[in-house]
Specification:
- There is one protein chain.
- The chain is mostly helical.
- The protein has helices at residues 3-12, 54-66, 68-84, 90-107, and strands at 31-34, 49-52.
- It has a two-stranded antiparallel sheet.
- Helix 2 (54-66) crosses helix 3 and helix 3 packs antiparallel against helix 4.
- The longest helix is centred in the C-terminal third of the chain and has 18 residues, at 90-107.
Length: 127
């Protein structure tokens, strides 16, 4: 695990044991999501990071591909969480969950190029 991720775990996960998209957190598996993408000169810093489990990280990028407005809204919440310098509040978690449920309702039956559903069961297993 990179040093920046370890620092973020100390700041943002003292009690909840959840990542920022409400998935059960396993510290050894946590990933760093760039809020401002690397390809857009986003740095690997605490201020530009978000702690996500691999399933959540993959799901977030599916959301980016299918619904850029929801992706942007989630990243705005992540940016605000960084500004407050402590783990997501209950209200922030509920807002994130609301956005995810809205996305799931709209895209539940979307399929990829091979005809498989894009919303995998593992993406729906939160809290």
């Amino acid at each position: 695990m990179k040093n920046i991720t370890s620092e973020m775990l100390k700041i943002y996960v003292p009690y909840s044991n959840l990542d920022w998209m409400n998935y059960k957190l396993v510290k050894k598996d946590v990933t760093f999501h760039h809020i401002q993408k690397r390809c857009d000169n986003g740095a690997r810093t605490i201020e530009n990071g978000c702690l996500l489990m691999p399933n959540a990280h993959n799901y977030l990028h599916l959301i980016e591909f299918k619904d850029i407005e929801t992706y942007t809204a989630l990243n705005k919440i992540f940016k605000y969480i960084n500004q407050q310098r402590y783990e997501p509040t209950t209200e922030q978690r509920e807002l994130i969950e609301y956005l995810l449920v809205q996305f799931e309702t709209e895209h539940r039956w979307d399929k990829g190029s091979k005809g498989k559903l894009l919303l995998k069961h593992k993406y729906l297993e939160r809290w």
